[in-house]
């Protein structure tokens, strides 16, 4: 279905990534946000606090990120589309409720505008150091979806996508921005509402009394009941059966946790988003994401000027990781070059998917600025030899 | 399915998920007693059960949500109140009740509780206070009085404890009462009254934990504790909450301590936004998430 025009600021704008992200959330139908201030993400909810009273919705500033990350889930079960926004230290505090959202199949969106860590780290400076945390930071086994915009335009577009995926798969979806993407200002085109596809909540049509709240459909995702309509739904973070009742047996644990993972794994081809350029015939493929992909583009252009055959593969979904695509490229190229603003996170996935068929050369950076294109170029030249 | 041996006329039964019985609570525990009072209060208050949602945290009392035949949410440890806040704000027609224990609400969840009371979010909080962490085996809680033995204070407690009504009143609650598992009728009436209040309302229910608190402190079983509550309790409605602190064997002041009016969070939000934004303000309706 199409977006509700009330939330869509159609037009051509000059926005930073944080503000564009907020507009994406509004366009996607988000009418609730619970937040806690943290640099460099706060502008997202500041804009939401300003905009949402004119659209019909609620922003509440909570006492901490633990509260922010569960208040939105209460709102989701109350019927709203909801999200929260944070950065590293706040993201660490939210891990417990990411697990709750996974276990209770609560559709919601978390935006993480990444800054340098560990701990308080670099509050105002960029990093891409939360890429493994978003995948593995909560306890237990699970799958999530994480998207990596590299421009304010994509902060808008991919926030809409994040909400759509969260409703489709009933899973928390993460918009993994970074300080530079969040604070850089560029042209952002917001289309008319009728051109924005929005995934509605999958409410059941089965009446109360006959409905099993966690019985999966063919795509392994259960439909949702409405609260306050007599479904007497029970929602728990405990391992539960299809009624939602606690069932803490190894057999049910196996059944439930496998389904929670498989509903993403089995739909990976529908979820995966990437940008590939001149991979055919390339000797080297540069794999990057977020702001680093913008810097890598400069290095790729410089390398091509030198006659090196370089392809570009940009991760838009970091999770689920596009391992099939990377494996296919590994069979064609001599080497991958993987720059990222951390000391080695997504590169491990590239290595795993490449499975020894191509050299994988990491270009690390501890964060605080972006790479120098020359450092990426240097790595391209070395592996191309 | 036959119901041989079950009396279908038990007035509480329609409120329970009977397919989840037996429950996990120990003999002599007061949580089930409080649930009985809660079910009676729902009846007496003529609540539209479709619009009553119950939210629990973690612990013995945290299991209440799972036994009530209502929209029920069993959340994370200490975070029932912020979940309930989101549920209520997104769907204001719901009567949202938080039902949880003293450790859940006042230790790990203490910050959320005082802020929800400060905002005066329209949620009703029932705190079953058994003076201990029971689910995990009887550790010291922020409510455990001095000079009692717990599994983490084997030589006796020395941590000063919270006086819950005093704390909650100071934080801004509009309704504060305390009863014990002995006072089942008074408790049911207080719960019924709580449903008529708009704003952050709080009832403390003092409950035995015969398995871990009373036994370890040689205070007898559940029945002995009922006798203890009967003997030690003194009804003092309107008592200053700074004078109602609990101790190991002292007097138990019960009654309604606070009953006042204060604009709730949604009204405050609505009035401020309407005043400043005028015609531009679009009130958040009950979110019908059609999109």
CATH class call of the largest domain in chain A: Alpha Beta
General form of chain B: globular
List the domain count of chain B as a whole number.
1
- What is the rounded distance between the termini of chain B? 40 Å
Number of helices of chain B: 10
Structural class of chain B, by secondary structure, is alpha/beta
Integer-rounded radius of gyration of chain B: 19 Å
Output the keywords.
heterodimer; A: 385 residues; Rossmann fold; 2 domains; eight-stranded mixed β-sheet; five-stranded mixed β-sheet; B: alpha/beta; 10 helices; 15% strand
Task: List the SSEs and their pairings.
The complex is a heterodimer of chains A (385) and B (291).
Chain A: E1 11-16, H1 17-28, E2 30-35, H2 42-51, E3 58-61, H3 65-78, E4 81-86, H4 88-93, H5 95-104, E5 108-116, E6 122-126, H6 131-136, E7 145-147, H7 152-169, E8 172-178, H8 179-183, E9 185-190, E10 234-236, H9 250-265, H10 268-271, E11 274-277, E12 284-288, H11 291-305, E13 310-315, E14 317-319, H12 323-330, E15 335-339, H13 346-354, E16 359-363, H14 373-384
Parallel strand pairs in A: 2-3, 2-4, 4-5, 5-8, 7-8, 12-13, 12-15, 15-16
Antiparallel strand pairs in A: 1-9, 5-6, 7-14, 11-13
Chain B: H1 31-44, E1 52-56, H2 64-67, E2 71-74, H3 80-90, E3 95-101, H4 102-108, H5 110-119, E4 124-129, H6 164-171, E5 175-180, H7 184-196, E6 201-206, H8 210-214, H9 222-232, E7 233-235, E8 252-259, H10 265-277
Parallel strand pairs in B: 1-2, 1-3, 3-4, 4-6, 5-6, 7-8
Antiparallel strand pairs in B: 5-8
Helix pairs in contact in B: 1-7, 4-5, 5-6
What does it look like?
The complex is a heterodimer of chains A (385) and B (291). Chain A folds into two domains: 5-195, Thiamin diphosphate (ThDP)-binding fold, Pyr/PP domains (Rossmann fold), CATH 3.40.50.970; 278-384, Rossmann fold (3-Layer(aba) Sandwich). The longest helix of chain A is centred in the middle third of the chain and has 18 residues, at 152-169. With 385 residues, chain A is an alpha/beta fold. Chain A starts with 10 loop residues before the first strand and ends with a helix. In chain A, strands 2, 3, 4, 5, 6, 7, 8 and 14 form an eight-stranded mixed sheet that branches. A five-stranded mixed sheet of chain A has the order 11-13-12-15-16, with helices on both faces. In chain A, strands 1-9 form a two-stranded antiparallel ribbon. In chain A, helix 1 (17-28) packs across helix 2 (42-51). Chain A has 14 helices and 16 strands. In chain A, strand 2 (30-35), helix 2 (42-51) and strand 3 (58-61) form a beta-alpha-beta unit. Chain B is of the alpha/beta class. Helices cover 33% and strands 15% of the residues of chain B. In chain B, strand 5 (175-180), helix 7 (184-196) and strand 6 form a beta-alpha-beta unit. In chain B, helix 1 crosses helix 7 (184-196) and helix 5 packs across helix 6. The model of chain B has no long low-confidence stretch (mean pLDDT 95). The chains are: A alpha/beta (385), B alpha/beta (291). Chains A and B meet through strand 2, helix 3, helix 5 and strand 10 of A and strand 2, helix 3, helix 5 and helix 10 of B. Strand 10 (234-236) of chain A pairs parallel with strand 2 of chain B.
């Amino acid at each position: 279905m199409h977006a509700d025009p009330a939330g869509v600021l159609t037009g051509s704008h000059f926005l930073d990534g944080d503000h564009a992200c907020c507009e994406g959330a509004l366009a996607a139908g988000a009418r609730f946000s619970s937040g806690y201030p943290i640099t460099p993400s706060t502008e997202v909810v500041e804009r939401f606090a300003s905009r949402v009273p004119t659209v019909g919705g609620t922003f509440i500033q909570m006492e901490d990120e633990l509260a922010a990350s569960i208040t939105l889930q209460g709102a989701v079960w109350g019927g709203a589309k909801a999200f929260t926004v944070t950065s590293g230290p706040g993201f660490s505090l939210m891990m417990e409720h990411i697990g709750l959202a996974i276990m209770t199949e609560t559709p919601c969106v978390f935006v993480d505008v990444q800054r340098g860590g560990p701990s308080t780290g670099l509050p105002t400076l960029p990093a891409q150091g939360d890429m493994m945390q978003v995948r593995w930071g909560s306890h237990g086994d699970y799958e999530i979806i994480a998207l990596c915009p590299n421009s304010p335009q994509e902060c808008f577009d991919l926030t809409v996508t994040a909400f759509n995926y969260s409703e489709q798969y009933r899973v928390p979806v993460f918009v993994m921005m970074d300080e530079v993407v969040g604070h850089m200002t560029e042209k952002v085109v917001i289309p008319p509402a009728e051109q924005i596809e929005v995934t509605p909540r999958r409410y059941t049509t089965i009446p109360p009394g006959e409905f099993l709240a966690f019985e999966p459909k063919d795509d392994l995702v259960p439909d949702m009941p409405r609260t306050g309509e007599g479904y007497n739904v029970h929602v728990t973070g405990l391992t539960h059966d299809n009624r939602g009742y606690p069932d803490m047996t190894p057999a049910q644990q196996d059944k439930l946790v496998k389904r929670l993972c498989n509903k993403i794994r089995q739909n990976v081809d529908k979820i995966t988003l990437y940008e590939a350029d001149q991979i055919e015939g390339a000797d080297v493929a540069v794999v990057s994401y977020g702001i680093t992909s913008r810097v890598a583009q400069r290095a790729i252009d410089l390398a091509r000027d030198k006659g090196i055959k370089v392809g570009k593969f940009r991760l838009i979904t970091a999770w689920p990781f596009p391992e099939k695509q990377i494996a296919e490229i590994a069979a064609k190229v001599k080497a991958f070059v993987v720059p990222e603003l951390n000391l080695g996170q997504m590169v491990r996935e590239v290595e795993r998917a490449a499975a020894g068929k191509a050299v994988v050369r990491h270009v690390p950076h501890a964060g605080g600025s972006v790479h120098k294109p020359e450092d990426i170029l240097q790595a391209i030249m070395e592996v191309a030899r | 399915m036959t119901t041989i041996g079950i009396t279908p006329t038990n007035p509480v039964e329609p409120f329970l998920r009977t397919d989840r019985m037996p429950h996990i609570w120990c003999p002599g525990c007061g949580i089930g007693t409080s649930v009985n009072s809660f079910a009676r209060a729902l009846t007496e208050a003529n609540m539209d059960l479709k619009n009553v949602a119950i939210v629990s945290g973690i612990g013995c009392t945290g299991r209440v949500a799972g036994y009530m035949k209502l929209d029920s949410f069993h959340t994370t440890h200490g975070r029932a109140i912020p979940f309930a806040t989101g549920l209520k704000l997104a769907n204001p027609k719901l009567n949202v009740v938080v039902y949880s224990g003293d450790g859940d609400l006042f230790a790990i969840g203490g910050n959320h509780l005082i802020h929800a009371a400060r905002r005066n979010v329209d949620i009703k909080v029932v705190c079953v206070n058994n003076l201990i962490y029971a689910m995990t085996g009887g550790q010291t809680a922020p409510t455990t009085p001095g000079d009692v033995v717990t599994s983490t204070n084997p030589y006796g407690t020395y941590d000063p404890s919270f006086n819950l009504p005093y704390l909650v009143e100071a934080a801004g609650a509009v309704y504060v009462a305390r009863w014990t598992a002995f006072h089942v009728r008074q408790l049911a009436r207080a719960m019924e009254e709580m449903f008529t209040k708009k704003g952050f309302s709080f009832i403390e229910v003092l409950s035995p934990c015969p398995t871990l608190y009373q036994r370890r402190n040689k205070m007898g079983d559940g029945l002995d504790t009922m006798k203890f509550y009967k003997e030690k309790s003194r009804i003092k409605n309107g008592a200053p909450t700074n004078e109602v602190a609990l101790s190991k064997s002292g007097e138990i002041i019960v009654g309604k301590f606070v009953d006042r009016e204060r604009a709730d969070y949604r009204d405050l939000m609505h009035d401020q936004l309407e005043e400043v934004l005028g015609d531009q303000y679009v009130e958040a309706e009950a979110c019908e998430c059609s999109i």
